[in-house]
Every structure is written in structure tokens, then in C-alpha cells.
Amino acid sequence: MRMRNKYRKPTRLSCNAGSRCSISAVVWSLIGCLLILHLYSLVHQKDGMGGEIQFRMTHQPQFRELEEVEEENIQIPPPRGKRSPRAAKRRPKRTTTLVDEFLDENSQLRGVFFPDERTAVDPMKDLGNDTFYYYPGRIWLDTDGNPIQAHGGGILYDEKTRTYYWYGEYKDGPTYHAHKKGAARVDIIGVGCYSSKDLWKWKNEGVVLLAEEKNETHDLHKSNVLERPKVIYNQKTGKYVMWMHVDDANYTKAAVGVAISDYPTGPFDYLYSKRPHGFESRDMTIFKDDDGMAYLVYSSEDNSELHIGPLTEDYLDVTETMRRILVGQHREAPALFKHDETYYMITSGCTGWAPNEALAHAAESIMGPWETMGNPCIGGNKMFRLTTFFAQSTYVVPLPSFPGSFIFMADRWNPADLRDSRYVWLPLIIGGPVDQPLDYNFGFPLWSRVSIYWHRKWKLPQGWSGLTWM
Ligand code: GAL
């Protein structure tokens, strides 16, 4: 494998003992220490909410705010007499943790993870200085004033209409369990589509792929599962192609479904489902490369590994080529992106709707080998970082005017009421050395670090003005 160390070795001072050089080295070191201390005191400051803010690194001045490391200090309430019987069953002996509180729908901290409608972000209101701010975890309203329904989603930038389209699971129905041990579910309604010029104010374009109400043998019969829809545009055929995870209520079908439309706003015609390359396929994504080649990535072999393979030219099928990646690592919720000829991916662990630790991976060739670089999450607190800020990856949106900067899109699932699941959008920045040794490279940092910074509120940097950069 090509070694690609992007970091220079430290310069050495080569002086003989006792020479004047060693004295000046000491003096310069002292000056250096003082400068560092000064810099530290300048940037190390407390914010007004009890959280601590530090600056990690700033490769572009516009990103200074995005790279602030914001700490969270959430006090776990003392145990109460009456707690949710489900939460008590899950962890009978241990003291409660933030994750227990998150999973307990009766927790006093519920409002921390799922703030109520009073704090909803409504882009149609005059928000003054709050305009364009993302508030991860808050209810996010569309231009009609309804909560956005686009879970497990992804974003397409359509060059023809110079518009962003956000597609996701439209889950605005009741949550129930198909049977005692089944995962919480909502019947399929379809794929929601929202359009935007600025990635903040979203107009509901309707349900662009609908569930089947009557035919029980149909893949999209409402009693089945439709998750993680993603859409890409095929330049050669002029079609918008949607790939999604289709399954039965017990997740045993484990297949991908494909739908097609002439317009980004649909309607999409459902074509078929299949097990790609003959293998189980659950959480999945598709990725369109700069050269027009597109790829399917899916969790397979009981979610113990991911598979990746190119799509056919028309994007309607997979080809015969497939590679197994991250074998034995049990990863899902893949979100793939590219920077500087390197491919990156964020994945989650496999714990259903419950949050877990994200990992970042990198590869020089999209077909692998892929290396795991560690947890990309920065800030919040330890539990925030170990739970991907209580959310699960779904997509990473590139910001072409700011190379190396992306929006990380994740779902904060609410298994008690899935329609009320929230969106956690955060800045993702590529840069700086990775902070843990990698699998195959003898400890040398071959890749740049992927960092996802926690923010209670944030907005895209100045200079970003929707589509003017395109
Ligand atoms: C997760 C998966 C979600 C959904 C959920 C059901 O592991 O990422 O998309 O399938 O399980 O429990």
C-alpha cells in the first residue's frame, strides 16, 4: 500500500553539548512555552451556559466557530420511586446512566434530548439573529409549519433546478410493536421529499414514493419496512434513481429496493427488490463519485460486515463486482463522502434504535481496503461522544465552496414515538492527524482526522449563501 504521510517530521536542533546553541535552544523553548501559554489563555474561555468552550484547530477563519469544542454538563437526576418499568427491566442493578435516561421515555431529562414544540425551529418566523441556525435535537419545521419527516435520509443537489432535495422515511404514523420482541415500528407511509435553496428552510414536496395499501405481497405494503432512501441523478439516462432498504417487519427479507423518476420531486415508480450479489442487505447507502460511477454499500452477513460494489451505468442494478469491507466490525448506518481523492465513511454500531459510538473509516480506493480511524465525535461530554450525540449517522453533505467541510446528518431516534425522532446536523471537518493507531500502517497517520463537533446551535460559515457558490 502507498504510504502517504501528510505530516512533516519535527525539525531537530543538531548542536554539540556545551555550545552556545544549547543555551539559545533553552531560551527559544522558554519563549515558545510563554507564547503557547498566552495563546491558551486567549482561547480557553467559559461560555455563559456552564459549558466549556475551547478551540481545537482552525484551518479556515470561517470555521473557527464550527470547530469550537463545546462541553455539556448534564446532571443525572436521583432515582425516583416510580420509573418506566421498561427502563427498569433493561438495567436492573446498575445506577442510571445518561443512556438509560435517554431510553427512558419518562425520564426527567426527556426535554434535554427531545425538547418540546415550544423550542421548535421555525424558519418562517422572523428569528432575527437566530436565522440559519441549526439546533440539533430540536423539532425542525418545514415551510408549512409541520415537523420535517425525512428520517434515515439523504440529500441530492440537483444542478438542473439548483435546489437541494432531502429524501427520508416519512414516519408520521403511530409507533407500535408488531410482536412482543419486535423492534418499534411505524407502518410504511413512503419517502418524504423536501426542497431547499439554503439547506435550512425546507419546503414539503410531498411523499414521492408511496406505500402500497392493499397488495400484501408488494415490497412496499404498509406492514413492511422501507428505510434509508437515497437518491442520485443519472446523467446518461436523465433519471433520478432511488435506492432503499426494504424488509419485512422482522427484518428477515434484508433486501434493497430501487425506484425511478423523471423529476427530483417524483413521483417515483418502484421497480423491484433484490438481495445484492445474493447477500443480505440491511442498512445501506449509495454514493455517486466524481467520475459518474455510483456504488452501493450495505450491511451484510448478519450486519457483521459491509459490502461495497459499483452500480450498473443506469444505476438500476449492482454489477457482479463486490468487496467485503470492515469484516467482523459489525457496523451499519454507512454515510460515505470524499475529500482530496480519499474516501471517508462514518458508520454506527448495531444496537437498533438505541444510540452507540460512531466510527470514521478511510480508504484510498473506494473498493478498499478501508481502515478504521476511531470515533470522530468531539465535545459534548463522554456519553455524548460514545453515543454520536445520541444519534445515528445517515448522510454527509459536502459543502463544495469549503473543501474539507461537510454537514454530518444523523437521526436521534425516538423509539417510543418514531415520528418524533429528531435530526442532529453538525459540522464535520477533515483535517489534522488521526489520534489512534490504525490497522495496517504501523501506527503512521496516513489519513487526516475526521471531526464532528458538537454544538447546541450553529450555522454555516459566513460566505455560505445557499447556492451562490455553485
Ligand atoms: C437500526 C437501523 C435503523 C433501523 C433500526 C430498527 O439498527 O440503523 O435504520 O433499521 O435499526 O431497529
Automatic annotation (TrEMBL):
Record family assignment: Belongs to the glycosyl hydrolase 43 family.
Give the source species.
Answer: Ziziphus jujuba
Annotated Gene3D superfamilies = Glycosyl hydrolase domain, family 43 (2.115.10.20)
Taxonomic classification: Eukaryota, Viridiplantae, Streptophyta, Embryophyta, Tracheophyta
Stretches the record annotates as Disordered: 68-94
Q: Where is the signal peptide?
A: none
Transmembrane regions listed in the UniProt entry: 21-40
Cite the entry's keywords alphabetically: Glycosidase, Hydrolase, Membrane, Transmembrane, Transmembrane helix
Q: Which InterPro entries match?
A: Glyco_hydro_43, Glyco_hydro_beta-prop_sf
Q: Which intervals carry biased composition (Basic residues)?
A: 80-94
Its protein name is Uncharacterized protein LOC107424935 isoform X1
Q: CDD domains attached here?
A: GH43_CtGH43-like (cd18825)
Q: Which Pfam families match?
A: Glyco_hydro_43 (PF04616)
